[in-house]
Specification:
The protein is built from nine helices and 16 strands. By secondary structure, the chain is an alpha/beta fold. The protein binds threonylcarbamoyladenylate and magnesium ion.
Length: 329
């Protein structure tokens, strides 16, 4: 297994060669690291499901380098898709479109649609360019675990079972892409990301429907609770409830940590450690998965996370925190 800060062309050639052979190459994108496989090679795609221990009805996203490649994977691409692509590609947006009949249903988890995205991380772009075809790439973590935002986090989850890990440093965005389903009559937001809903609606010129409100929307498996979760018991808690909660903790000597973002001051209780996150949503998103992964290795009895604001810019963060904590509010 080769783990490398890949900037030179030998390493890029090696990655392309491995992918052509049906091997798996993890690579950075601006959102999270992806576990890449040749999207046209069923055997390689099967390895992705096996390595991630992912159920086979959970579709993969195909990553492409250029807009012209859309026609290799999708049919009946609506004008809305071109508007969103113009505005946000390359970038942290995945479009769900009707798949071409010949696209393997392994990739799409048996659905008639396909998720596609053009990422903007320079290493991802370089790799996709050099490879020339689509790369299937789910987040490079074990199923239900937190997505990796560094190369070492990929290694921690997948170890030497992945054939190469390209190191592009910490991911700029830090949360997975926004997913919009354009395969039906109305655009549906299947997974919020760090693109603002308002910015997307301005480009579309119409409102986005939310998956929960649309009975005919595509399934986005992975939207169930306890996805993106640390192994440690994790609890999302309103700012105003933190003081009472920590006062009620048993003094069993077991350490608890609270991930706070506001500057509210809380009583300093001995068995509580504090992590102060940035109060800016983009900076918080950038750091949160790395923080949760680090805390998960420290044997805390419990991780408390201060609930974040209800505003639009925090939507994707709220979504992932609810999933990390199995909280339905
Ligand atoms: O930012 C990202 O999207 C990262 C990077 C690597 O690109 N990828 C990623 O992939 O998060 P993954 O497989 O971990 O999550 C993709 C989500 C899953 O919840 C899957 O169910 C949904 O996208 N999805 C993919 N194709 C779909 C489709 N055709 N219809 C509905 N949901 C789909
Ligand atoms: Mg994932």
């Amino acid at each position: 297994m080769l783990m490398t800060m890949t900037t030179n062309s030998d390493e890029m050639d090696k990655a392309v060669h491995l992918l052509r052979e049906g091997k798996l190459v993890a690579f950075p994108t601006e959102t999270v690291y992806g576990l890449g496989a040749d999207a046209s090679n069923d055997e390689a795609v099967r390895k992705v499901f096996t390595l991630k221990e992912r159920p086979d009805n959970h579709p993969l996203i195909v990553h492409i380098a250029r807009l012209e490649q859309l026609q290799d994977w999708a049919v009946d691409v609506p004008p809305e898709a071109m508007k969103l692509a113009d505005a946000f590609w390359p970038g942290p947006l995945t479009l769900v479109l009707k798949k071409k009949p010949e696209v393997s249903s392994l990739l799409t988890g048996g659905q008639a649609t396909i998720g596609i995205r053009i990422p903007r991380h320079p290493l991802a772009q370089g790799l996709l360019d050099a490879f020339g075809d689509g790369l299937a790439a789910p987040s490079a973590n074990k199923f239900t675990h937190i997505s990796p935002t560094t190369a070492s986090a990929v290694y921690e989850d997948l170890g030497t079972a992945v054939d190469m890990i390209m190191d592009g440093g910490p991911c700029e965005v830090g949360l997975e892409s926004t997913i919009i389903d354009l395969s039906g009559d109305e655009p549906v937001l299947l997974r919020p990301g760090m693109l603002s809903q308002q910015a997307i609606e301005e480009v579309l010129g119409k409102p986005l429907h939310l998956a929960a409100d649309v009975s005919t929307a595509s399934r986005a498996p992975g939207s169930h609770l306890l996805h993106y979760a640390p192994k440690t018991k994790t609890h999302l808690i309103a700012t105003g409830d933190i003081t009472n909660y920590i006062q009620s903790l048993q003094s069993d000597g077991l350490p608890v940590v609270c991930v706070a973002y506001s500057d509210t001051s809380f009583p300093q209780v001995k068995q509580v450690d504090w992590v102060n996150m940035p109060a800016d949503a983009a900076a918080y998103a950038h750091d949160i998965y790395r923080t949760l992964r680090a805390l998960d290795t420290e044997h805390y009895k419990e991780i408390l996370i201060e609930a974040v604001p209800e505003t639009d810019e925090w939507t994707a963060i709220r979504d992932r925190l609810q999933k990390a904590t199995g909280s339905s509010t």
